[in-house]
Amino acid sequence: MMEIEFIRRWDSEKTEYSNWGGFVQKEIETKLQEKFNLDTGYFLKVPSMPRVKETSSLIEKAFHRGKDYENPYDDITDKVGVRFVVLLSTDIQKINRVVEDSEYWQWSRDRDFEKEREDKPELFDYQSVHYIVTSTPEAALANGTFSAHLPCEVQIRTLMQHAYSELTHDAIYKPKTAATPIAKRYCARAMALIETADECFLGVMKQLEVVNKPIVDAMKMLEQKYKDIVGSEPDCSKFNSFILDEFVDKINDALDGRLDDFLKERPFVIANIKKRAVDDFIYRQPVVLFIYLLAYLEPRQTKIRWPLTEAEIQPILDDLGIASEF
């Protein structure tokens, strides 16, 4: 294939590749939300957007880098790509599962940094997971703006790996750049520190998971109870964790049963929650059930330790017939 033929074909198919990249991005983000209940706006540390290669970059790669492609147009599989940047290496595994479970593409791993570390444990170099995902007929039929058998590169990195890549991609490892041995040594040291920092961060996360387990378990219980008793979907904002953290010493194995008994004896609590939930943020949160129980069991301490304004807890005290002065 001559350069002019390559360019003509690319110009005619560029939009199709862009549509395919957009489909891959949206599908991965949707499945992350569904499988892991993730807020992708928080989970992904850099916005993921499909990127279509510039024509000049494709021509350089196809004809002027000594790659010796047998069929340069079809052999170049990163004409469109999507990058996902996460915080920790364990987060990469979630995206791996989504990529490998989809019915809309066939996949192959182009790079796997964990495998590379096993093969060359003494080497500290660029790290990332690269997939090539190729559209299936099912994907083409579902979308209608691209055909089957289109490749898209999916890159998955941690935030620190991304920073390393941004620094070194063009400045160090491109053939046109003659990086000094000292510069390359600095890069290797930086990657070693990145691996160490990731391990330390994972250790921190494991410790936090242990400490936060009572709050996480209580939140799941309260969310389900709110759905069952109030009969509507609650909001689950960070306000819930904020309140549970303030009163974490009151969370125990008996909480579920005590809350059930409390609500059965006081049906007016649920009625008031339903009425106020229409226009009051607090009453749309599952933790409001916990607040009612605390206010009933220990009104004085609950009021003293209440982390927000008195006006926000006073209606709950009033519902329970607890005087504003005790």
UniProtKB/TrEMBL annotation:
This is RelA/SpoT domain-containing protein. It comes from Terasakiella brassicae. Transmembrane segments: none annotated. Residues 50-179 form the RelA/SpoT domain. It holds the Pfam family RelA_SpoT. GO terms for biological process: guanosine tetraphosphate metabolic process.
